């Protein structure tokens, strides 16, 4: 090496050392430098000869080559991130597996076994035993082992405390590896025939040293082959529409245990009108509280009613017996049903009353009835006859008009036969026709006692053949149907205005004078004939120039005044039958004031609007409405006044 080059190297080394020592000295004595912290890094006192090129022209080239070969910092961070994420995922899965398995190799989650031994089939009400087997095949001891058993719906557990919830929880304590335990549950099982009842068991456990509780489940199904109660509904298979039918419900028990809190509920089809039952229902017309039924005990219930419907229509009756909860049969002891078919009548007829209006009429109404008849047989009929018999006081005998028929007052019957109605001489197969009759409802009814109420008229018609056709000699081909019309009560509302009254006397000038107040007494009177009326209201309004004085007699009689609408309302819960006839008239008194204006001179102004009374007839369930005209200053009911007292004077 030349002397110049050697001096260059020495100088370069000296400069590098001086620079490094300076920086170190600065860090040691600097105010904000920490010596210990700095010493964690490798000091920069290493020789720099490796960084010096032997050739002036190669230094830059070597630095460029090192930059090209040095990996990118961004790429290095991405690779490190991906590697770290993978490692973290492996660690997470490993920790989860350790938590579940408690770090014990060879443990099986399916190794905790639970099963139920249940009878496949029983008769409803039989005593049943369910055996639940639990076995620890996990491969480790179990710190917690609990068994939850849920009885089937309809079960009556032998253990009293289980009956409320149909559920029992048992602690099996620590369960060693391979240990097996059997628990027995007993009770009576009820249900409808062919129903499936399911018992359920849940085995909850925790492996020693673990933090999670696991569970396995099992089911045991049992089919009910026979209901605990034998229930039979007996009745006619076929019936004419409108005929009365009788049914019998027979109940007998063959359960191993007594049946408690038994309730019978009958479901009637549409078109069935209940009449009576023996014994009578406990609630309504279809529920019987039977109470406790012992083994072998029998119960019989009969009921009857009228069935109406279209030809060939099926009517289904159903009987359900069981335990009731919240008005629903929650546990069924027995079920049965019976179907009745509406027969196609050999002869048929129908009523059309007042063109199909409701079968409720007011007094003094006219009733027009059309009879539509038909021969449904495939053979002709000779000498047909139709008889219509009247019942009730709701018709006036003298008003009966029957074209082509004759009325006989001795038995209140109209008769149509071949001599009066020609088509009845010979009815072809499928032939049909019509005839009519008419009558009037009485204008009023005699009311002498409380029994003179709920008036009606019922006509009972029968169509038959005097000569039965060949092939039907021993068959009753006649048909009978009823129709009933209920008569509404007769409500009368009387309103009047008084001045000279003893209950609430009037005051002020009479005749009324301009600028001065005259006080009148208004009286409302009610008369009611034959039926009770409920929720009766009597209403009227005061004109804007009339003043409500607030004086009422009798007090507490249910009258109110609304100052916003100026409406007066008299409310009555029930207005009895015979009010104003065999009972006192129902009356209310109240006062209003009137101050005439100049323009009223010579007039008889309205002091009360039209009176409207409305209520419900208890017998007919119809709305009863009666009105009375508006009241002016004409005091026609006050005998102490004359026409000169009725007009406004200056």
Can you describe this structure in just a few lines?
It contains four helices and 39 strands. By secondary structure, the chain is mainly β.
Describe this structure in words.
With 650 residues, this protein is mainly beta. It has six domains: 3-69, no CATH class; 71-95; 109-226, Sandwich (Immunoglobulin-like), CATH 2.60.40; 233-342, Immunoglobulins (Immunoglobulin-like); 347-487, Immunoglobulins (Immunoglobulin-like); 491-645, Immunoglobulin-like (Sandwich). The protein contains four helices and 39 strands. Strands 20, 22, 23, 24, 25, 27 and 28 form a seven-stranded mixed sheet that branches. Strands 2-9-8-4-6 form a five-stranded mixed sheet, with no helix packed on it. A five-stranded mixed sheet has the order 11-18-17-13-15, with no helix packed on it. A hairpin with a 2-residue loop joins strand 17 (314-325) and strand 18. The radius of gyration is 52 Å and the shape is flat. Mean pLDDT is 84; it is low at 1-17, 28-32, 35-63, 71-75 and 89-109.
């Amino acid at each position: 090496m030349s002397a110049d080059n050697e001096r260059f190297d020495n100088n370069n080394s000296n400069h590098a050392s001086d620079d490094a020592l300076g920086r170190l000295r600065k860090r040691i004595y600097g105010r904000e430098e920490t010596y210990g912290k700095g010493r964690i890094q490798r000091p920069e006192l290493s020789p720099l000869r490796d960084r010096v090129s032997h050739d002036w022209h190669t230094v830059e080239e070597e630095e460029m080559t090192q930059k090209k070969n040095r990996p990118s910092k961004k790429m290095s961070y991405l690779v490190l991130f991906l590697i770290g994420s993978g490692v973290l995922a492996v660690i997470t899965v490993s920790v989860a597996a350790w938590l579940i398995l408690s770090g014990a190799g060879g443990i099986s989650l399916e190794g905790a076994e639970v099963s139920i031994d249940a009878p496949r089939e029983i008769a409803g009400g039989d005593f049943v035993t369910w055996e639940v087997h639990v076995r620890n095949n996990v491969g480790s001891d179990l710190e917690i082992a609990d068994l939850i058993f849920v009885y089937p719906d309809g079960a009556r557990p032998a253990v009293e405390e289980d009956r409320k919830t149909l559920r029992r929880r048992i602690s099996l304590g620590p369960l060693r590896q391979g240990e097996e335990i059997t628990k027995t549950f007993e009770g009576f099982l009820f249900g409808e025939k062919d129903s499936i009842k399911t018992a359920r068991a849940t085995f909850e456990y925790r492996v020693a040293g673990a933090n999670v509780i696991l569970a396995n489940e099992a089911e045991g199904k049992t089919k009910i082959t026979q209901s605990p109660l034998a229930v039979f509904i007996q009745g006619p298979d076929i019936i004419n529409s409108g005929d009365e039918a009788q049914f019998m419900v027979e109940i007998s028990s063959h359960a191993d245990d007594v049946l408690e809190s038994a309730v019978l509920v009958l479901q009637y089809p549409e078109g069935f009108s209940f009449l009576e039952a023996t014994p009578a229902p406990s609630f309504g017309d279809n529920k019987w509280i039977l109470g406790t039924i012992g083994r072998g005990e029998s119960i019989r219930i009969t009921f009857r009613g009228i069935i109406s419907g279209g030809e060939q229509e099926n009517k289904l009756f159903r009987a359900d017996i069981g335990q009731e909860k919240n008005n629903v049969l929650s546990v069924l002891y027995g079920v049965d049903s019976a179907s009745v078919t509406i027969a196609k009548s050999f002869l048929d007829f129908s009523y059309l009353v007042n063109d199909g209006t409701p079968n409720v009429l007011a007094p003094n109404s006219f009733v027009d009835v059309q009879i539509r008849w038909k021969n449904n047989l495939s053979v002709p009929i000779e000498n047909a006859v139709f008889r219509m018999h009247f019942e009730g006081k709701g018709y006036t005998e003298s008003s009966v008009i029957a074209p082509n028929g004759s009325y006989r007052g001795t038995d209140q019957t109209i008769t149509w036969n071949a001599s009066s109605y020609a088509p009845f001489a010979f009815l072809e197969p499928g032939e049909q026709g019509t005839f009519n009759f008419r009558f009037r409802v009485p204008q009023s009814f005699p009311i002498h006692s409380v029994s003179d109420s709920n008036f009606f008229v019922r006509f009972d018609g029968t169509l038959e053949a005097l000569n039965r056709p060949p092939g039907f000699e021993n068959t009753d081909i006649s048909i009978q149907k009823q129709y009933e019309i209920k008569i509404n009560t007769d409500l009368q509302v009387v309103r009047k205005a008084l001045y000279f009254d003893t209950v609430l006397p009037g005051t002020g000038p009479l005749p009324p004078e301009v600028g001065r107040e005259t006080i009148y007494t208004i009286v409302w009177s009610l008369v009611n004939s034959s039926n009770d009326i409920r929720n009766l209201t009597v209403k009227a309004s005061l004109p804007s120039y009339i003043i409500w004085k607030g004086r009422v007699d009798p007090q507490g009689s249910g009258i109110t005044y609304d100052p916003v609408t100026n409406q007066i309302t008299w409310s009555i819960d029930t207005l009895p039958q015979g009010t104003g006839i065999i009972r006192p008239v129902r009356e209310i008194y109240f006062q209003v004031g009137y101050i005439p204006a100049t323009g009223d001179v010579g007039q008889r102004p309205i002091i009360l609007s039209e009176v409207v009374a409305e209520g419900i007839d208890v017998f007919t369930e119809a709305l009863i409405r009666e009105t009375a005209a508006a009241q002016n200053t004409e005091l026609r009911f006050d005998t102490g006044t004359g026409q000169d007292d009725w007009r406004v004077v200056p």
